[in-house]
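Long-time lurker. I teach an intro course on protein structure, and each term I like to show students one example going from raw sequence to a predicted 3D structure in token notation. This year I'd like something fresh instead of my usual example. Would anyone be willing to generate the tokens for the chain below so I can use it in lecture? Attribution to the forum is fine with me.
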Amino acid sequence: MSELMRAVEAVDFAIDDLRLCERAMPSVGDGEVLIKIEAASLNYRDLAILDQKFMPHLNLPYVPCSDCSGQVVKVGDGVTRFNEGDRVIPVYTQGWYSGKPTQQQRTTKTLGAPLSGVLQEYIVVPEQEAVMAAASLTSKECATLPIAALTAWNALEQGGIKSGDTVLVQGTGGVALFALQFAKMAGARVILTSSSDEKLSQAKQLGADVGINYKTHSNWGALAKEATGGRGVDIVIETTGYTLSESLSAVCFGGFVGVIGFVGGHEATISVKSLLGPFIRVQGIAVGSRLQFEAMVRAIDYHGIKPVIDSSFLLENVADAFRHLKSGKHVGKIVIEI
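-- Reply from a regular --
Happy to contribute to a lecture. Here you go:
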């Protein structure tokens, strides 16, 4: 095995400052596994970091991205969870096994910043910081799971999803489409919003029951409520951030809004009455624990869930992948082949 590996570094905070380089191969210590990364996927978080909108004081250069899958090629002394040849997925928030994460885990133990990212050929992680890959999925499909799928899974779980519920999903990015698929798996009805009629058509092919174009219907919250006969939706997956007031207008009495992103902005203006009167619960969602990850993988295998992959790029073309993500034209996940 060579002592060097290919990697992508960001030498500054811009897509044009991504560079393909060579780095030293990581060495395996006690209780660790060496993983040959086969595929990675992009998240909005990766773009926000690269645009210096998130973690602006991160030390340069850094290796971007947090989500990947691959194969164990070497195990350290004392490893019992994995064997050489196992297909695995590193966990995004290192050390979060169950329950709630600590502030330290949320701020210092996440792959792709501040921990080194996964746009490289090999990575070493402690054996406790990975899960077995979904047997029914390819490496490219498994690489889409750590943030997008687990965030959707956790948000629906926190919302107490049950058969017969109505779930409102915003957009056609990775989290949104996983939320759509998991909600349908649970027997729920799904309303999906998008700025594109073409994307709404694609979402309906994936199982969305109602599509609302928020560009042509700025009062989409009221329309979503009308689509439930006036009762309101049970769960909202809020991905844009600034549209929280519309989400609150769509939700039912005692409903749940899971705030999982800020792709549209960091600020939102809401009426306190919209929370107090209808007894709505609003909660920030920060991906999920390893225990939840393992449960999600079992469900994916059992129900035959297939991640929606928009496109894939070679490692040397990762800048083009980021530009595609920034354009907002994608439906589903963007994958990097390594």
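Some talking points for your students: The first strand starts at residue 4 and ends at 10. DSSP finds eleven helices and 15 strands in the chain.
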